[in-house]
Write a structure and sequence with these properties.
With 297 residues, the chain is α/β, with parallel strands linked by helices. Helix content is 39%, strand content 16%. The protein has nine helices and ten strands. It has an eight-stranded mixed β-sheet, with helices on both faces. The chain is globular. It starts with 6 loop residues before the first strand and ends with a helix.
Length: 297
């Protein structure tokens, strides 16, 4: 953690909905004149798409558990740990972009499934936002969760997560449903051992729960909409800047399921995100600016 150069990590699996949270934070920064840097966890994949496919094929041929982007074999977690440490100490670091599809390749230049060159973060940022798979991960040698000042988990129920991933990867990225299903199954070991444990380390979790039938996510034709879901918001510890009782009085249809857990209608998630996250982000930025000013005098 760093008072002068705070880090906010949005942690979620592929298809979980972390982009919704990131976009809400981007809007807060625009409205509050906050200069933020953004980095995607995909920047720290260890292999290009072609290299990953070859590594998977080799493992399957040799009878080994194949690598995945959920686990350490598929990611340079040491580089992510060093990047967080660098930003926390100096507000500096280097990032690159993983090119998921033709749109990314055209926008950044490069080949689909590859990476752009490493480049420096813009200088003078107020804080760093990370969006990805491993912002709160721990291994036998690394504790990446020790760096972020605020850890946000985005955790839909597992069937909903799979529906969202299948719809995104088949509809936007051009994969077949069968290929996406194979990826889900191949990643399961790493999902259980590296992704899920992080949500016990996050400071706040947002979990979307559908209220329509999602019993078989592999045949679902659409993603349940906001009006077809609830959002469970859980605080790991009380925070004076997050007033659940005030939110309860403001949001019709909301209720407290436990003293540290608020449940809201899915259609209110963006509003509540803004209400919860704005004071938390403002506090980090205010404290960071003050600490930098004190250090320069």
């Amino acid at each position: 953690m760093s008072l002068r150069h705070p880090i906010v990590a949005i942690v979620g699996s592929s298809g979980a909905g972390t982009t919704t949270v990131r976009k809400a934070l981007e809007r807060i920064c625009q409205q509050e004149n906050i200069h933020a840097a953004f980095v995607s966890g995909d920047s720290f994949h260890r292999l290009t798409r072609a290299e990953m496919q070859a590594a998977i094929a080799d493992a399957e041929r040799e009878g080994r558990r194949p690598p995945s982007h959920f686990g350490p074999e598929g990611n340079d977690l040491e580089a992510l740990d060093a990047f967080f440490a660098s930003y926390g100490a100096s507000g500096r670091g280097k990032i690159r972009h993983y090119l998921h599809d033709r749109h990314d390749a055209k926008r950044h230049g490069g080949r689909v499934g590859g990476f752009t060159a490493w480049e420096k973060l813009p200088e003078g940022t107020d804080l760093l936002f990370y969006e990805g798979l491993h912002g709160a991960v721990k291994t036998g040698t690394l504790d990446i969760s020790s760096h972020p000042d605020l850890l946000i988990g985005v955790v839909p129920t597992i069937n909903l997560e799979w529906i969202q991933k299948i719809q995104r990867d088949s509809g936007i990225r051009g994969y077949s449903v069968e290929a996406v299903t194979d990826t889900i199954l191949r990643r399961m070991y790493d999902y259980v051992h590296y992704i899920m444990p992080q949500f016990s380390r996050t400071h706040i979790n947002f979990q979307r729960v559908p209220v329509v039938d999602t019993s078989n996510p592999f045949v679902a034709r659409d993603i349940p909409g906001p009006k077809e879901s609830l959002v469970v918001i859980h605080l790991a510890e009380p925070n004076p800047r997050v007033d659940f009782l005030h939110l309860l009085s403001m949001i019709q249809g909301s209720f407290m399921s436990r003293p540290n857990t608020l449940v809201i209608p899915g259609g209110k998630m963006r509003l509540v995100l803004r209400m919860i996250m704005t004071p938390l982000i403002e506090a980090l930025v205010e404290n960071g600016r003050k600490a930098r000013a004190d250090a320069s005098t």
